[in-house]
Write a structure and sequence with these properties.
mainly alpha; 8 helices; elongated
Length: about 200
C-alpha cells in the first residue's frame, strides 16, 4: 500500500518559502519612514499625511499573508517535486519579494493626481506577477502529476479555475488603472477580501 508521504524536498522548499515570505512582509514596513516636522506642521498632521503609505502597507501585508496561507494549504496537496517545479517556485517567490517595491511607489504617489494612475497600474502589475508565478507552479504540478493522486479531478479543476480567475482580475485591474486609479484599487481590494475567506477542504476520490 502507498504511504503518501511528502517528499523531503517539498518540506525543505516550504521552509525556504516561509523565509522569503517573512522577509518580504518585513520589508513593507521599512518603506514607511519617520516623518520630519517643519514649517509649523505638527507631528500628528505629519503622521496623518502618511495615510497612503499605511494603506499600501496594509493591503500588501494582507496580500502576502494570503499567499503564505495559500502556499501552506496547497503544499499539503503536493507529494513530490522535481527541478523545474523548484525553479517555478523560486520564480513565484521572486515575484512575492518584488511586491514591496510597487507598494512603496503606491504609497509615495497615490496622492499625486498626475502620477496616481501610473502608480496604481505599477502596483496592480506587482500584484499580478505573483499570481502568474503561482499559476505556473500549479499548472506544472498538475501536468507532471506531482499532486496527491487521490485528489478528486473536479476539485483540482476548481482550483485551476480559481487561479486563472485571479490572474484575469489582476490583469483587468492593471488595464482599468489607466482609466481610473480608484476603480483599479477597488478591484484589487475586492479580490483581497474574497481571498480572506477559508479554503475549500480537499476532496478525494
Amino acid at each position: 500500500m502507498a504511504t503518501h508521504e511528502h517528499d523531503p524536498g517539498t518540506q525543505r522548499l516550504e521552509a525556504f518559502s516561509d523565509g522569503v515570505f517573512a522577509i518580504a512582509i518585513t520589508l513593507l514596513i521599512i518603506e514607511i519612514a519617520v516623518p520630519s516636522v517643519s514649517g509649523g506642521r505638527s507631528l500628528g498632521r505629519a503622521l496623518g499625511d502618511l495615510w497612503p503609505k499605511y494603506f499600501a502597507y496594509v493591503l500588501s501585508f494582507v496580500t502576502i499573508g494570503i499567499y503564505w496561507a495559500n502556499h501552506h494549504f496547497v503544499w499539503r496537496l503536493f507529494r513530490r517535486a522535481d527541478h523545474y517545479f523548484l525553479m517555478l517556485n523560486v520564480f513565484f517567490l521572486m515575484c512575492v519579494a518584488f511586491l514591496p517595491f510597487p507598494t512603496a511607489v503606491l504609497g509615495e504617489y497615490l496622492r499625486h493626481a498626475d502620477e496616481r494612475r501610473t502608480a496604481v497600474a505599477f502596483y496592480a502589475f506587482g500584484l499580478l506577477l505573483p499570481a502568474i508565478g503561482w499559476l505556473c507552479v500549479w499548472l506544472y504540478a498538475n501536468a507532471r502529476r506531482l499532486l496527491d493522486e487521490r485528489l478528486d479531478p473536479a476539485y483540482l479543476r476548481s482550483l485551476t479555475i480559481q487561479y486563472l480567475a485571479s490572474n484575469a482580475v489582476y490583469a483587468i485591474a492593471l488595464g482599468v488603472a489607466f482609466l481610473s486609479a480608484w476603480a483599479a484599487l477597488a478591484i484589487c481590494v475586492g479580490l483581497t477580501v474574497v481571498y480572506l475567506l477559508p479554503h475549500r477542504r480537499p476532496v478525494y476520490s
